[in-house]
């Protein structure tokens, strides 16, 4: 007879959390230390600090009524930026709603990220050569699409991957299973990142599934799976880099679960995390902070200083200010504009409505 | 020219486009080796290889989502949903995603996807195989919904759909697959999307129909002619968007109309057409515009199917009501 408990234990034991840099900023897993130059290491730090500042400014702008929809990112920088740093320009990002930072570092200008938040369609237009789509709102819908992009790249023989992001709640969706299963069946060039921040809005990950890890779900799809310390930017980078290499070498897709935490609310639209999280839990995770530990690591190597960080913070604030101004100066969209982007050849009903709105909006 | 059934014409359209454009991909459940449960893709995998024509895992949402991903990498996917009753499994991928992608991306990400699927009543299928769900699709901005009524149109409309850079839901009435043959050119040709066809000219009443109901309407028109009533029959071919220009021109000539659909009466294609006629041509009307439709139950169990479905007799009855108003 199959002993379920033993079977599960056997599986779960194989998904121990992969870590390179511990909370003290010490390398604990030197064998897997990625081959990154000092300049690369500093660039990763710059991006994390920039993104943390951007998050703080975005929250402030939202509270002033100047931003619109916003999902805070603080706490998740290592998961978001470590994985993106492992990508090449040709790789295609299919983000969830919290994954705007990856888009920015993949080439979406900051003022467009603000336009996305403000509900202007120009925020969703990726510049030529930026391989990404705007953040997905339906939880998990991007996962099956990622299997498709990864299959497309394989069919074209391209040295590129599709990468998608969702959260622990997203791993409960049917589309999650269909997506990883399709990707496995077709050996699609795809990477599925689940940022397990422990809460799907308010529902804890323990209530999402009887499975002890999300990474182990890869087994059912017959694909590679790994659980990573999502507060350790080097571990996330190394896992993503390896997944990318495997994918483009025809060895199939990978599911990466990053263990992380969002310090802020689910979104700025009224979520109150004190209803479902304790202060103890918050402070326990803040001790694992990705920026704090990476700063310790860089400082020990003599690669980072307080002065340098302060300079970066000031520069970032200036850039944000300029981007807000650019977003403010973007002409408003009209309903006629929206009708114009519905189809290549406008059907007669919309042609009629286009005339109607052109007339109405010219007044 | 060859004599073809509608399903042969559909296969021929796919073969034509597989030859024309290397970005065309055809896939779905049982589509590859088996050639489809209705044999719509018969021989295509053998001719074009597994890279272009292939089987997928049995998961409609996955098929829909994968199609979007393939379109994002420049392919022109032609996925098959095995029966359109299964569309509920792929509603988000179709209505929440592919229909909205061009718009969502500010006009930068086209979705040249043609979702083919059999539907339609009268062939005694199990539940959720025969439903007419075109109304559900027509409610979604961004989709075109095409329903051919004959082999010639099926080939030309399918080629136009595949070449279109926006998503098309291409619905194939199962009862028409092999019910008759007609001459279909072996060479390529297109039939315009968004354009209705006048199948029979008349002067007393306009019958607006699509899919299998075009044939019921033509049969009704023959019966009506025996009683001296001259019915004009229109075949919509594209049910979303509807070609109101052709409908209104006909109604302004005949001054009466009956709109025929196989779907349930509530919230369907016919209701919208009635609304449009009264908005744009009410002073031309000699009688209210009536609808022929199925009752508002879930699709009938097969033993009641023949009564539940509209047919030429129910059409004749409604036309008589209109004529005697």
From TrEMBL, chain B:
<dbReference type="InterPro" id="IPR033248">
    <property type="entry name" value="Transketolase_C"/>
</dbReference>
<dbReference type="Pfam" id="PF02779">
    <property type="entry name" value="Transket_pyr"/>
</dbReference>
<dbReference type="Pfam" id="PF02780">
    <property type="entry name" value="Transketolase_C"/>
</dbReference>
<keyword id="KW-0560">Oxidoreductase</keyword>
<protein>
    <submittedName>
        <fullName>Alpha-ketoacid dehydrogenase subunit beta</fullName>
    </submittedName>
</protein>
<dbReference type="InterPro" id="IPR029061">
    <property type="entry name" value="THDP-binding"/>
</dbReference>
<feature type="domain" description="Transketolase-like pyrimidine-binding">
    <location>
        <begin position="4"/>
        <end position="179"/>
    </location>
</feature>
<dbReference type="InterPro" id="IPR009014">
    <property type="entry name" value="Transketo_C/PFOR_II"/>
</dbReference>
<keyword id="KW-0786">Thiamine pyrophosphate</keyword>
<dbReference type="InterPro" id="IPR005475">
    <property type="entry name" value="Transketolase-like_Pyr-bd"/>
</dbReference>
């Amino acid at each position: 007879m199959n002993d379920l408990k033993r079977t599960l234990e056997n599986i779960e034991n194989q998904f121990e959390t992969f870590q390179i840099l511990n909370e003290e900023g010490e390398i604990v897993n030197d064998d897997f230390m990625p081959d990154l130059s000092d300049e690369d290491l500093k660039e990763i730090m710059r991006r994390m600090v920039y993104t943390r500042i951007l998050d703080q400014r975005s929250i402030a702008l939202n509270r002033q009524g100047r931003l619109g929809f916003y999902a805070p990112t603080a706490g998740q920088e290592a998961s978001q930026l470590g994985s993106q740093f492992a990508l090449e320009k040709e790789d295609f990002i299919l983000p969830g709603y919290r994954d705007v930072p990856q888009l920015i570092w993949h080439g979406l200008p900051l003022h467009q990220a603000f336009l996305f938040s403000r509900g202007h369609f120009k925020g969703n237009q990726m510049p030529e050569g930026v391989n990404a789509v705007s953040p997905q709102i339906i939880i998990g819908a991007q996962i099956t699409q990622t299997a498709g992009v990864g299959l497309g790249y394989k069919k074209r023989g391209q040295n590129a991957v599709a990468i998608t992001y969702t959260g622990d709640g997203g791993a409960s969706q049917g589309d999650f299973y269909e997506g990883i299963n399709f990707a496995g069946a077709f050996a699609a060039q795809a990477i599925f990142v689940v940022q397990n921040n422990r809460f799907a809005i308010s529902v804890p990950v323990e209530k999402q599934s009887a499975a002890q890890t999300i990474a182990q779900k890869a087994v059912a799809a017959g694909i590679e799976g790994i659980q990573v310390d999502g507060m350790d930017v080097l571990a996330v980078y190394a896992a993503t880099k390896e997944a990318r290499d495997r994918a483009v070498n025809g060895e199939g897709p990978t599911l990466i679960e990053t263990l992380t935490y969002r310090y802020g609310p689910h979104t700025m639209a009224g979520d109150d995390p004190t209803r479902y999280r304790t202060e103890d839990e918050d402070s326990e995770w803040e001790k694992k902070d990705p920026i704090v530990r990476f700063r310790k690591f860089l400082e020990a190597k003599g690669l980072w200083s307080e002065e340098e960080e302060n300079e970066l913070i000031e520069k970032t604030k200036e850039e944000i200010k300029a981007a807000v101004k650019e977003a403010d100066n973007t002409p408003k969209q009209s309903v006629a504009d929206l009708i114009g982007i519905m189809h290549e050849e406008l059907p007669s009903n919309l042609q009629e409505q286009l005339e109607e709105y052109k007339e109405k909006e010219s007044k | 020219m060859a004599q073809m059934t509608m399903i042969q014409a559909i296969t021929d359209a796919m073969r034509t486009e597989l030859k024309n454009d290397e970005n065309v991909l055809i896939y779905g459940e049982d589509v590859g080796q088996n050639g489809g449960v209705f044999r719509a893709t018969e021989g295509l995998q053998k001719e074009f290889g597994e890279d272009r024509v292939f089987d997928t895992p049995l998961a409609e949402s996955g098929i829909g989502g994968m199609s979007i991903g393939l379109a994002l990498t420049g392919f022109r996917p032609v996925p098959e949903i095995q029966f359109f009753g299964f569309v509920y499994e792929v509603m988000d991928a179709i209505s929440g995603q592919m229909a909205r992608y061009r718009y969502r991306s500010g006009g930068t990400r086209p979705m040249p996807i043609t979702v083919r699927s059999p539907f339609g009543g009268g062939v005694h299928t199990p539940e959720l195989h025969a439903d007419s769900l075109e109304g559900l699709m027509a409610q979604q901005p961004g989709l075109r919904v095409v329903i051919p009524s004959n082999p010639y149109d099926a080939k030309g409309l399918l080629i136009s759909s595949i070449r279109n850079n926006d998503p098309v839901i291409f619905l194939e009435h199962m009862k028409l697959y092999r019910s008759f043959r007609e001459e279909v050119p072996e060479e390529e040709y297109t039939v315009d999307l968004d354009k209705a066809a006048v199948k029979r000219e008349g002067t007393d009443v306009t019958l607006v129909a699509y899919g299998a109901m075009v044939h019921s309407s033509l049969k009704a028109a023959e019966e009506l002619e025996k009683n001296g009533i001259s019915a004009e029959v229109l075949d919509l071919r594209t049910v979303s968007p509807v070609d109101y220009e052709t409908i209104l021109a006909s109604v302004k000539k005949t001054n009466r109309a009956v709109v025929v659909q196989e779907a349930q009466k509530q919230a369907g294609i016919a209701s919208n057409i009635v609304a449009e006629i009264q908005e744009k041509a009410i002073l031309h009307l000699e009688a209210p515009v009536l609808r022929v439709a199925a009752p508002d139950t879930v699709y009938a169990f097969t033993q009641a199917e023949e009564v539940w479905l509209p047919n030429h007799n129910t059409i004749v009855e409604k036309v008589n009501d209109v004529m005697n108003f």
